[in-house]
Amino acid sequence: MKRVFGVKKDKEPPPSIQDASDRINKRGDTVDDKLKKLDAELSRYKEQIKKTRPGPAQEAIKARAMRVLKQKRMYEGQRDMLYNQTFNLDQVSFAAEGLKDAQQTMSALKSANKELKGMMKTVKIQDIDNLQDEMMDLMDVSNEIQETLGRSYNVPDDIDEDELMGELDALEADMGSEADGVPSYLQPDKEEPDLDAELNLPSAPTGSTTAPAGRSNAQQAEDELGLPTVPRASVRS
């Protein structure tokens, strides 16, 4: 049967935008190469025309140059069409890429929406409010515990605050009545009085003095101690 009806050939997949763009770019490169060759040929003819004298030879060179110039114009037109086709393909490719990005974005948003809905089922506003209330109660209990632990054991509970305030006022009044606002028990001690000055006693000598002639050492010592001299009787022989 296959020999009679033949085998159905598989259809080739249609070319993609990138394949078409690559094909056109190759054609454009070929046209550019041809234009370069024509430019070189025109430059050679131009030099020959300058060197050749007017006449049949120069006219023949000009005819060849005109033919090359026509070919150049034709290839330039083909190159412009290829450039336009490439530009159109680039626009289509850009639009296609934009649509693909939009599809991926929509898929990601749908997946995220589904996950958020599942998460919202497990999280309730009422549960959050209850949790906040419990946390506030726990903080209040913690503060009460800290205050209880921070109490002083040496301070009795039956202290009268009015009595303490009265003592404080009396202390302030006492401080105000003292000199310079300092209580007497906080003022420095006064210097002790000089008893020698009050009794008008002579001051002790500080240096040694020369005893007058006729005075003994004992009398001189008595004078140095500040004692009054006692007259002594002389014994006559």
Describe this entry's structure for a reader.
With 237 residues, this protein is an all-alpha fold. It has a domain at 17-117. The chain is built from seven helices and no strands. The longest helix is centred in the middle third of the chain and has 67 residues, at 56-122. This is Charged multivesicular body protein 5-like isoform X1. Keywords: Coiled coil. Residues 1-32, 172-237 are annotated as: Disordered. Residues 203-220 have a biased composition (Polar residues).
Name some characteristics of this structure.
about 240 residues, mainly alpha, 7 helices, disordered C terminus, coiled coil, Charged multivesicular body protein 5-like isoform X1
